[in-house]
Sequence to fold (131 residues):
Amino acid sequence: MSSPAFPAPSPTLETAIRTKGEKLFALMSQQAPPALFSKKGAYARLMDWSMKDPAFKTQLFRFVDVLPSLNSSAEIVRHLQEYLGDKAVALNPALKAGLAASSFAPALVATPVKAQIVDMAGQFVAGQTGE
Fold:
């Protein structure tokens, strides 16, 4: 078998790509960070917070991974409690209290949690099908 032939590098194309990239980065640096109370700002803070705490990050991504297979609010809340109620995960007192109380009204917790995760995933997934 022979290796695929690659076209010779084009200095003109390389220069054009670099120029476009530099313009893109310049435009990005001019944008203000997301507002504190905007959806984008909330997602940014959640992602920053979750990436700083390895235990929380691991458990959060495990929960996100299993979420599509959960069929009821009770299952979602149970898994949320199992993953984020772990002693290794440091949650602030308000989140701990909310997590502990979530089993009393699973639909009140599960519905917005699932909606937020699905919405947040939309920022990272380009499409919903393999096409």
In short: The chain has a mean pLDDT of 80. Helices lie at 11-30, 39-52, 54-66, 73-84, 93-101, 106-121. Residues 2 and 40 are 48 Å apart (CA to CA). DSSP finds six helices and no strands in the chain.
